[in-house]
Write a structure and sequence with these properties.
Radius of gyration: 16 Å
Largest sheet: 4 strands, mixed
Number of domains: 1
Low-confidence stretches: 121-127, 133-151
Strand content: 15-25%
Structural class: alpha+beta
Length: about 150
């Protein structure tokens, strides 16, 4: 079952205002509808674009971020903040085409998040590097970071 929630609205605004330049966030949080899901999926959260006539049902918002039940298993506020920021990085507005779309996971698109020492994402960095088959120097990994690997 899905339920619209406002519990992430303030956090999304804060993250957008703090990271819109450094993380190249292009979508204002007012364009995002957050939903909770009781589904147990591998990902903590995921995004969808709202298109066409469905925008009328959401007050002209263009994205849905669906937060799954296992998000509640995250142990710290930093992990929860990271997941929401991560999902916001997927949301993209193309000025030239005047079109909203989702960015896929690539090392290049998310490199600013991966190398930001604030998030301590060595496991995520290693996982992305393995996908791209490139060498990335690793630091010692903390147990808190392992929860982020599920994303």
């Amino acid at each position: 079952m899905f339920k619209i929630t406002e519990e992430f609205n303030e956090l999304a605004k804060e993250l957008y205002n703090t990271h819109k330049v450094s993380m190249e966030l292009t979508v204002d949080p007012s364009r995002v509808v957050f939903m909770r899901s009781d589904k147990k999926k591998r990902a903590y959260a995921y995004c969808k674009v709202i298109g066409g006539e469905y925008q009328l049902l959401t007050n002209k918002r263009f994205f849905i971020v669906i937060v799954n039940e296992n998000f509640n298993n995250l142990k710290t506020d930093e992990e929860r903040r990271y997941v929401i920021l991560h999902e916001m990085m997927h949301l993209h507005y193309d000025d030239e085409k005047d079109k909203y779309n989702l960015l896929k996971h690539t090392l290049e698109d998310f490199s600013t998040l991966l190398i930001n020492p604030k998030w301590n994402l060595d496991i995520t960095r290693k996982r992305e590097a393995k996908k791209k088959e490139i060498a990335v120097p690793m630091k010692e990994v903390t147990t808190t970071t392992t929860a982020l690997m599920v994303i």
